[in-house]
Protein backbone atom coordinates (compact mmCIF):
# COMPACT_ATOMS: atom_id res chain seq x y z
CA UNK A 1 0.00 0.00 0.00
CA UNK A 2 1.36 3.45 -0.90
CA UNK A 3 1.85 5.56 2.22
CA UNK A 4 0.24 8.99 2.20
CA UNK A 5 2.86 11.70 2.47
CA UNK A 6 2.56 14.18 5.31
CA UNK A 7 4.89 16.84 3.91
CA UNK A 8 3.91 20.47 4.40
CA UNK A 9 4.44 21.16 0.71
CA UNK A 10 2.06 18.43 -0.33
CA UNK A 11 -0.49 19.45 2.29
CA UNK A 12 -0.39 23.00 0.94
CA UNK A 13 -0.89 21.73 -2.61
CA UNK A 14 -3.70 19.49 -1.40
CA UNK A 15 -5.56 22.29 0.34
CA UNK A 16 -5.11 24.91 -2.37
CA UNK A 17 -4.97 23.00 -5.66
CA UNK A 18 -6.74 19.65 -5.35
CA UNK A 19 -10.23 20.92 -6.10
CA UNK A 20 -8.90 22.85 -9.12
CA UNK A 21 -7.20 19.69 -10.36
CA UNK A 22 -10.27 17.51 -9.80
CA UNK A 23 -12.53 20.11 -11.41
CA UNK A 24 -10.37 20.14 -14.54
CA UNK A 25 -10.62 16.35 -14.78
CA UNK A 26 -14.32 16.10 -13.85
CA UNK A 27 -15.98 16.56 -17.22
CA UNK A 28 -16.91 14.33 -20.11
CA UNK A 29 -14.58 16.06 -22.57
CA UNK A 30 -11.34 17.90 -21.89
CA UNK A 31 -10.00 20.23 -24.58
CA UNK A 32 -6.44 21.42 -25.15
CA UNK A 33 -6.81 24.37 -22.78
CA UNK A 34 -8.01 22.17 -19.90
CA UNK A 35 -5.35 19.56 -20.72
CA UNK A 36 -2.71 22.28 -20.41
CA UNK A 37 -4.13 23.36 -17.07
CA UNK A 38 -4.07 19.78 -15.77
CA UNK A 39 -0.42 19.45 -16.76
CA UNK A 40 0.42 22.77 -15.13
CA UNK A 41 -1.01 21.55 -11.82
CA UNK A 42 1.12 18.40 -11.80
CA UNK A 43 4.36 18.12 -9.83
CA UNK A 44 6.60 15.02 -9.47
CA UNK A 45 6.16 14.79 -5.68
CA UNK A 46 2.39 15.03 -5.57
CA UNK A 47 0.53 13.22 -2.81
CA UNK A 48 -1.33 10.93 -5.22
CA UNK A 49 -2.90 8.70 -2.54
CA UNK A 50 -4.49 11.74 -0.86
CA UNK A 51 -5.68 13.12 -4.20
CA UNK A 52 -7.33 9.83 -5.17
CA UNK A 53 -8.98 9.49 -1.76
CA UNK A 54 -10.38 12.96 -2.30
CA UNK A 55 -11.50 12.06 -5.84
CA UNK A 56 -13.36 9.00 -4.57
CA UNK A 57 -15.00 10.98 -1.77
CA UNK A 58 -16.14 13.56 -4.33
CA UNK A 59 -17.43 10.85 -6.70
CA UNK A 60 -15.11 11.79 -9.58
CA UNK A 61 -12.31 9.18 -9.53
CA UNK A 62 -13.76 7.62 -12.70
CA UNK A 63 -12.99 10.85 -14.59
CA UNK A 64 -9.39 10.75 -13.36
CA UNK A 65 -8.91 7.25 -14.73
CA UNK A 66 -10.56 7.99 -18.08
CA UNK A 67 -8.69 11.23 -18.79
CA UNK A 68 -5.32 10.77 -17.08
CA UNK A 69 -4.79 7.35 -18.65
CA UNK A 70 -4.74 9.18 -22.01
CA UNK A 71 -2.13 11.72 -20.84
CA UNK A 72 1.01 9.60 -20.82
CA UNK A 73 3.27 12.17 -19.17
CA UNK A 74 0.79 12.47 -16.28
CA UNK A 75 -0.22 8.81 -16.06
CA UNK A 76 3.41 7.73 -15.92
CA UNK A 77 3.93 9.43 -12.54
CA UNK A 78 0.86 7.89 -10.91
CA UNK A 79 1.95 4.95 -8.70
CA UNK A 80 1.05 1.56 -10.20
CA UNK A 81 -1.08 0.52 -7.22
CA UNK A 82 -3.17 3.66 -7.61
CA UNK A 83 -3.53 3.15 -11.37
CA UNK A 84 -5.01 -0.27 -10.59
CA UNK A 85 -7.27 1.26 -7.91
CA UNK A 86 -8.61 3.88 -10.34
CA UNK A 87 -9.11 1.30 -13.08
CA UNK A 88 -11.10 -0.95 -10.74
CA UNK A 89 -13.17 2.00 -9.51
CA UNK A 90 -14.07 2.94 -13.08
CA UNK A 91 -15.06 -0.60 -14.06
CA UNK A 92 -17.13 -1.09 -10.88
CA UNK A 93 -19.22 1.94 -11.83
CA UNK A 94 -19.53 0.66 -15.40
CA UNK A 95 -20.71 -2.78 -14.25
CA UNK A 96 -23.14 -1.32 -11.68
CA UNK A 97 -24.67 1.08 -14.19
CA UNK A 98 -25.02 -1.64 -16.80
CA UNK A 99 -26.94 -3.65 -14.20
CA UNK A 100 -29.16 -0.61 -13.46
CA UNK A 101 -29.96 -0.06 -17.13
CA UNK A 102 -30.67 -3.75 -17.60
CA UNK A 103 -33.04 -3.73 -14.60
CA UNK A 104 -34.86 -0.65 -15.90
CA UNK A 105 -35.32 -2.48 -19.20
CA UNK A 106 -37.40 -5.04 -17.26
CA UNK A 107 -39.24 -2.70 -14.89
CA UNK A 108 -40.40 0.12 -17.19
CA UNK A 109 -42.31 -2.09 -19.68
CA UNK A 110 -44.07 -3.88 -16.80
CA UNK A 111 -45.34 -0.58 -15.40
CA UNK A 112 -46.17 0.78 -18.88
CA UNK A 113 -48.21 -2.34 -19.62
CA UNK A 114 -50.67 -1.52 -16.82
CA UNK A 115 -50.74 2.21 -17.67
CA UNK A 116 -48.62 3.37 -14.74
CA UNK A 117 -46.79 6.52 -15.79
CA UNK A 118 -43.23 6.46 -14.48
CA UNK A 119 -40.46 9.04 -14.79
CA UNK A 120 -36.84 8.03 -14.28
CA UNK A 121 -35.13 10.65 -12.10
CA UNK A 122 -31.67 11.93 -11.25
CA UNK A 123 -28.63 9.77 -12.01
CA UNK A 124 -30.43 6.96 -13.83
CA UNK A 125 -32.01 9.45 -16.24
CA UNK A 126 -28.59 10.92 -17.05
CA UNK A 127 -27.08 7.60 -18.18
CA UNK A 128 -26.86 7.65 -21.95
CA UNK A 129 -28.61 11.01 -22.27
CA UNK A 130 -26.22 13.42 -20.53
CA UNK A 131 -23.41 10.93 -19.88
CA UNK A 132 -22.85 9.00 -23.10
CA UNK A 133 -20.23 6.97 -21.22
CA UNK A 134 -22.31 5.43 -18.43
CA UNK A 135 -19.18 4.85 -16.29
CA UNK A 136 -18.99 8.61 -15.67
CA UNK A 137 -21.89 8.69 -13.17
CA UNK A 138 -21.56 6.79 -9.85
CA UNK A 139 -24.89 5.51 -8.52
CA UNK A 140 -26.24 3.67 -5.50
CA UNK A 141 -29.94 3.43 -6.29
CA UNK A 142 -32.55 4.21 -8.95
CA UNK A 143 -35.14 6.94 -8.39
CA UNK A 144 -38.53 6.66 -10.08
CA UNK A 145 -41.50 9.03 -9.92
CA UNK A 146 -45.07 7.74 -10.13
CA UNK A 147 -48.39 9.39 -9.44
CA UNK A 148 -49.61 8.95 -5.88
CA UNK A 149 -52.66 6.94 -6.87
CA UNK A 150 -50.46 4.49 -8.81
CA UNK A 151 -48.07 3.69 -5.94
CA UNK A 152 -50.01 0.67 -4.54
CA UNK A 153 -50.17 -0.98 -7.98
CA UNK A 154 -46.49 -0.22 -8.62
CA UNK A 155 -45.56 -1.86 -5.30
CA UNK A 156 -47.57 -4.97 -6.19
CA UNK A 157 -45.96 -5.33 -9.61
CA UNK A 158 -42.45 -4.87 -8.25
CA UNK A 159 -43.18 -7.29 -5.41
CA UNK A 160 -44.19 -9.90 -8.02
CA UNK A 161 -40.75 -9.71 -9.65
CA UNK A 162 -38.86 -10.05 -6.37
CA UNK A 163 -38.51 -6.55 -4.90
CA UNK A 164 -38.91 -6.32 -1.13
CA UNK A 165 -38.70 -3.69 1.59
CA UNK A 166 -35.26 -3.59 3.29
CA UNK A 167 -35.62 -4.86 6.87
CA UNK A 168 -33.83 -1.87 8.37
CA UNK A 169 -36.37 0.70 7.09
CA UNK A 170 -39.72 1.80 8.52
CA UNK A 171 -41.38 1.88 5.12
CA UNK A 172 -44.81 3.02 6.30
CA UNK A 173 -43.43 6.08 8.06
CA UNK A 174 -41.18 6.96 5.12
CA UNK A 175 -44.13 6.79 2.72
CA UNK A 176 -46.19 9.10 4.93
CA UNK A 177 -43.65 11.86 5.59
CA UNK A 178 -41.41 11.48 2.55
CA UNK A 179 -43.76 10.41 -0.22
CA UNK A 180 -41.49 7.53 -1.21
CA UNK A 181 -40.71 3.86 -0.62
CA UNK A 182 -37.47 1.88 -0.85
CA UNK A 183 -37.33 -1.56 -2.44
CA UNK A 184 -34.52 -4.04 -3.03
CA UNK A 185 -34.07 -7.33 -4.87
CA UNK A 186 -31.22 -9.76 -4.27
CA UNK A 187 -28.88 -9.47 -7.20
CA UNK A 188 -30.76 -6.40 -8.37
CA UNK A 189 -30.68 -2.76 -7.39
CA UNK A 190 -32.17 -0.45 -4.80
CA UNK A 191 -35.29 1.34 -6.04
CA UNK A 192 -36.61 4.58 -4.54
CA UNK A 193 -40.20 5.07 -5.71
CA UNK A 194 -41.30 8.69 -5.25
CA UNK A 195 -44.73 10.27 -5.50
CA UNK A 196 -43.38 13.80 -5.13
CA UNK A 197 -40.26 15.80 -5.98
CA UNK A 198 -40.45 18.20 -3.04
CA UNK A 199 -41.87 16.43 -0.01
CA UNK A 200 -38.92 16.95 2.28
CA UNK A 201 -40.09 16.96 5.91
CA UNK A 202 -39.25 20.60 6.64
CA UNK A 203 -40.37 21.98 3.27
CA UNK A 204 -43.77 20.36 2.97
CA UNK A 205 -46.25 22.61 1.14
CA UNK A 206 -43.58 25.31 0.60
CA UNK A 207 -42.08 24.28 -2.74
CA UNK A 208 -44.72 24.18 -5.48
CA UNK A 209 -43.20 22.04 -8.22
CA UNK A 210 -45.41 18.98 -7.63
CA UNK A 211 -48.68 20.83 -8.21
CA UNK A 212 -47.66 21.74 -11.77
CA UNK A 213 -49.03 19.31 -14.37
CA UNK A 214 -46.51 20.69 -16.88
CA UNK A 215 -43.94 18.61 -15.05
CA UNK A 216 -45.61 15.53 -16.56
CA UNK A 217 -46.68 17.10 -19.85
CA UNK A 218 -43.12 18.12 -20.74
CA UNK A 219 -41.52 14.74 -20.10
CA UNK A 220 -39.79 13.00 -22.99
CA UNK A 221 -39.00 9.49 -24.10
CA UNK A 222 -35.36 8.55 -24.41
CA UNK A 223 -33.70 5.34 -25.57
CA UNK A 224 -30.62 4.83 -23.40
CA UNK A 225 -29.33 1.96 -25.49
CA UNK A 226 -30.84 -0.71 -23.24
CA UNK A 227 -34.46 0.35 -23.64
CA UNK A 228 -36.78 3.34 -23.65
CA UNK A 229 -37.32 5.41 -20.51
CA UNK A 230 -39.37 8.48 -19.71
CA UNK A 231 -37.46 11.37 -18.17
CA UNK A 232 -38.08 14.97 -17.17
CA UNK A 233 -37.87 17.57 -19.92
CA UNK A 234 -34.60 19.56 -19.92
CA UNK A 235 -36.01 22.58 -18.02
CA UNK A 236 -37.55 20.52 -15.22
CA UNK A 237 -34.55 18.18 -15.17
CA UNK A 238 -32.20 21.07 -14.44
CA UNK A 239 -34.54 22.56 -11.81
CA UNK A 240 -35.01 19.23 -10.06
CA UNK A 241 -31.28 18.46 -9.98
CA UNK A 242 -30.63 21.85 -8.36
CA UNK A 243 -33.46 21.42 -5.86
CA UNK A 244 -32.56 17.87 -4.85
CA UNK A 245 -28.88 18.60 -4.48
CA UNK A 246 -29.52 21.67 -2.35
CA UNK A 247 -32.16 20.22 -0.04
CA UNK A 248 -31.20 16.54 0.19
CA UNK A 249 -27.40 16.65 -0.06
CA UNK A 250 -26.26 20.26 0.31
CA UNK A 251 -24.12 19.69 -2.79
CA UNK A 252 -21.85 17.17 -1.09
CA UNK A 253 -19.80 15.65 -3.90
CA UNK A 254 -18.19 17.35 -6.88
CA UNK A 255 -20.01 14.87 -9.15
CA UNK A 256 -23.30 16.66 -8.42
CA UNK A 257 -21.88 19.87 -9.84
CA UNK A 258 -20.75 17.80 -12.83
CA UNK A 259 -24.36 16.68 -13.29
CA UNK A 260 -25.48 20.30 -13.55
CA UNK A 261 -22.69 21.33 -15.90
CA UNK A 262 -23.12 18.37 -18.23
CA UNK A 263 -26.91 18.73 -18.26
CA UNK A 264 -26.61 22.37 -19.30
CA UNK A 265 -24.13 21.51 -22.05
CA UNK A 266 -26.13 18.50 -23.28
CA UNK A 267 -29.34 20.54 -23.62
CA UNK A 268 -27.96 24.02 -24.29
CA UNK A 269 -29.99 24.34 -27.49
CA UNK A 270 -33.23 23.25 -25.80
CA UNK A 271 -33.14 24.87 -22.38
CA UNK A 272 -35.62 27.75 -22.14
CA UNK A 273 -34.04 30.03 -19.55
CA UNK A 274 -36.94 32.49 -19.54
CA UNK A 275 -39.29 29.61 -18.79
CA UNK A 276 -36.96 28.40 -16.00
CA UNK A 277 -36.95 31.87 -14.40
CA UNK A 278 -40.74 32.03 -14.61
CA UNK A 279 -41.18 28.58 -13.09
CA UNK A 280 -38.54 29.16 -10.41
CA UNK A 281 -40.61 32.05 -9.07
CA UNK A 282 -43.80 29.95 -9.09
CA UNK A 283 -42.09 26.96 -7.47
CA UNK A 284 -40.28 29.26 -4.98
CA UNK A 285 -36.82 27.94 -5.86
CA UNK A 286 -35.19 31.14 -7.16
CA UNK A 287 -32.44 31.13 -4.55
CA UNK A 288 -31.85 27.41 -4.88
CA UNK A 289 -31.26 27.73 -8.62
CA UNK A 290 -29.04 30.77 -8.20
CA UNK A 291 -26.86 29.17 -5.56
CA UNK A 292 -26.52 25.90 -7.48
CA UNK A 293 -25.86 27.34 -10.92
CA UNK A 294 -23.60 30.19 -9.82
CA UNK A 295 -21.54 27.56 -7.96
CA UNK A 296 -21.22 25.57 -11.18
CA UNK A 297 -19.93 28.65 -12.99
CA UNK A 298 -17.52 29.43 -10.17
CA UNK A 299 -16.09 25.92 -10.46
CA UNK A 300 -16.13 25.33 -14.22
CA UNK A 301 -16.37 28.76 -15.82
CA UNK A 302 -19.25 30.49 -17.67
CA UNK A 303 -21.72 28.21 -19.44
CA UNK A 304 -25.00 30.12 -18.85
CA UNK A 305 -26.57 33.11 -20.65
CA UNK A 306 -25.08 36.33 -19.33
CA UNK A 307 -28.21 37.80 -17.74
CA UNK A 308 -29.75 34.55 -16.48
CA UNK A 309 -28.21 34.54 -12.99
CA UNK A 310 -28.84 38.26 -12.55
CA UNK A 311 -32.53 37.73 -13.30
CA UNK A 312 -32.70 34.89 -10.77
CA UNK A 313 -30.99 36.99 -8.13
CA UNK A 314 -32.83 40.27 -8.61
CA UNK A 315 -35.05 40.13 -5.50
CA UNK A 316 -32.71 38.23 -3.22
CA UNK A 317 -29.27 39.80 -3.60
CA UNK A 318 -28.62 40.34 0.12
CA UNK A 319 -29.56 36.89 1.45
CA UNK A 320 -27.91 35.13 -1.49
CA UNK A 321 -24.70 37.08 -0.88
CA UNK A 322 -24.76 36.20 2.83
CA UNK A 323 -25.40 32.52 2.08
CA UNK A 324 -22.61 32.36 -0.50
CA UNK A 325 -20.14 34.14 1.80
CA UNK A 326 -20.86 31.96 4.81
CA UNK A 327 -21.24 28.54 3.27
CA UNK A 328 -20.01 28.14 -0.30
CA UNK A 329 -16.31 28.83 -0.21
CA UNK A 330 -15.13 25.48 1.21
CA UNK A 331 -18.16 23.35 0.45
CA UNK A 332 -16.12 20.67 -1.34
CA UNK A 333 -13.52 20.34 1.41
CA UNK A 334 -15.76 20.08 4.49
CA UNK A 335 -16.00 17.00 6.73
CA UNK A 336 -19.32 15.15 6.58
CA UNK A 337 -20.55 16.44 9.95
CA UNK A 338 -19.94 20.04 8.95
CA UNK A 339 -21.66 19.50 5.61
CA UNK A 340 -24.73 18.25 7.50
CA UNK A 341 -24.68 21.28 9.79
CA UNK A 342 -24.24 23.77 6.98
CA UNK A 343 -26.95 22.00 5.01
CA UNK A 344 -29.46 22.53 7.82
CA UNK A 345 -28.51 26.15 8.45
CA UNK A 346 -27.96 27.34 4.89
CA UNK A 347 -31.30 25.94 3.74
CA UNK A 348 -32.81 28.89 5.60
CA UNK A 349 -30.99 31.21 3.19
CA UNK A 350 -32.34 29.24 0.22
CA UNK A 351 -36.00 29.92 0.89
CA UNK A 352 -37.49 32.61 -1.35
CA UNK A 353 -39.96 33.88 1.27
CA UNK A 354 -39.03 34.84 4.82
CA UNK A 355 -42.58 33.96 5.84
CA UNK A 356 -41.73 30.26 5.29
CA UNK A 357 -38.84 30.24 7.77
CA UNK A 358 -40.90 29.74 10.98
CA UNK A 359 -42.38 26.51 9.57
CA UNK A 360 -38.94 25.20 8.54
CA UNK A 361 -37.38 26.00 11.92
CA UNK A 362 -40.34 24.58 13.85
CA UNK A 363 -40.30 21.32 11.86
CA UNK A 364 -36.56 21.05 12.38
CA UNK A 365 -37.07 20.94 16.13
CA UNK A 366 -40.51 19.29 16.20
CA UNK A 367 -40.85 16.92 13.21
CA UNK A 368 -43.75 14.56 12.59
CA UNK A 369 -44.12 11.24 14.41
CA UNK A 370 -43.49 9.43 11.13
CA UNK A 371 -40.18 11.25 10.66
CA UNK A 372 -39.14 10.38 14.23
CA UNK A 373 -40.02 6.70 13.70
CA UNK A 374 -37.95 6.64 10.52
CA UNK A 375 -35.02 8.67 11.83
CA UNK A 376 -34.57 6.84 15.14
CA UNK A 377 -35.98 3.44 14.17
CA UNK A 378 -38.55 3.39 16.97
CA UNK A 379 -41.82 1.48 16.95
CA UNK A 380 -43.32 1.64 20.45
CA UNK A 381 -45.30 4.65 21.65
CA UNK A 382 -43.12 4.97 24.77
CA UNK A 383 -39.92 5.24 22.74
CA UNK A 384 -41.62 7.60 20.32
CA UNK A 385 -42.65 9.84 23.22
CA UNK A 386 -39.07 9.72 24.56
CA UNK A 387 -37.57 10.81 21.22
CA UNK A 388 -40.25 13.44 20.84
CA UNK A 389 -38.92 14.96 24.09
CA UNK A 390 -35.19 14.71 23.38
CA UNK A 391 -35.09 15.49 19.63
CA UNK A 392 -35.15 19.31 20.12
CA UNK A 393 -32.17 19.00 22.46
CA UNK A 394 -30.31 16.74 20.00
CA UNK A 395 -30.93 19.29 17.25
CA UNK A 396 -29.78 22.19 19.41
CA UNK A 397 -26.67 20.24 20.48
CA UNK A 398 -25.76 19.45 16.87
CA UNK A 399 -26.02 23.13 15.96
CA UNK A 400 -23.99 24.33 18.92
CA UNK A 401 -21.33 21.64 18.58
Task: Provide an overview of this structure.
The chain has a four-stranded mixed β-sheet. Strands 5-6 form a two-stranded antiparallel ribbon. It has four domains: 8-78; 101-231, 2-Layer Sandwich (Beta Polymerase, domain 2); 233-356, no CATH class; 366-400. The protein contains 20 helices and six strands. The protein has helices spanning 8-25, 32-40, 48-57, 61-68, 72-75, 80-113, 122-126, 151-160, 171-178, 214-217, 234-249, 254-266, 273-283, 286-300, 308-313, 317-327, 336-346, 357-365, 369-376, 381-400, and strands spanning 118-121, 141-146, 180-184, 190-194, 220-223, 228-231. It has 401 residues and is an alpha+beta fold. Mean pLDDT is 83; it is low at 1-14.
CATH topology annotation of the largest domain: Beta Polymerase, domain 2
Series of secondary-structure elements, N-terminal to C-terminal: HHHHHHEHEHHEEHEEHHHHHHHHHH
Beta-strand content estimate? 5-15%
- Sequence stretches where pLDDT stays below 50 over 5 or more residues: 1-14
**Gross CATH architecture of the largest domain:** 2-Layer Sandwich
pLDDT averaged residue by residue: 83
The CATH class of the largest domain turns out to be Alpha Beta
Lateral arrangement of strands in the main beta sheet:
1-2-4-3
Number of domains: 4
Question: Ends: how far apart?
Answer: 36 Å
Look at the helices and sheets and give the structural class.
Answer: alpha+beta
**Rg calculated over all Cα atoms:** 22 Å
- Judging from the principal axes of the Cα atoms, what is the shape? globular
The largest β sheet comes out as: 4 strands, mixed
| Number of E strands | 6
Total DSSP helices: 20
Helix content: 55-70%
Amino acid sequence: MVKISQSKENKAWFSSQTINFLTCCSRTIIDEEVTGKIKSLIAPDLDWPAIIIKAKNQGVAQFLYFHLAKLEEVWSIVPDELKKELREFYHRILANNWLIQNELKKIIPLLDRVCIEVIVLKGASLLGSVYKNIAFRPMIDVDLLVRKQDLPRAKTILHDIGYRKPDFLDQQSLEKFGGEIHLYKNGGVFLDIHTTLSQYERFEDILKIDSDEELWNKTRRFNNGEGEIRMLGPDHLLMHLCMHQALAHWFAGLFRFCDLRETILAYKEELDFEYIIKKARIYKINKILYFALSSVQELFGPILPQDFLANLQYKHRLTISIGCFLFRKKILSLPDKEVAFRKSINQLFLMDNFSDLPQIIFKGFFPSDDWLRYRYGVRSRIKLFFYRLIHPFITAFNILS
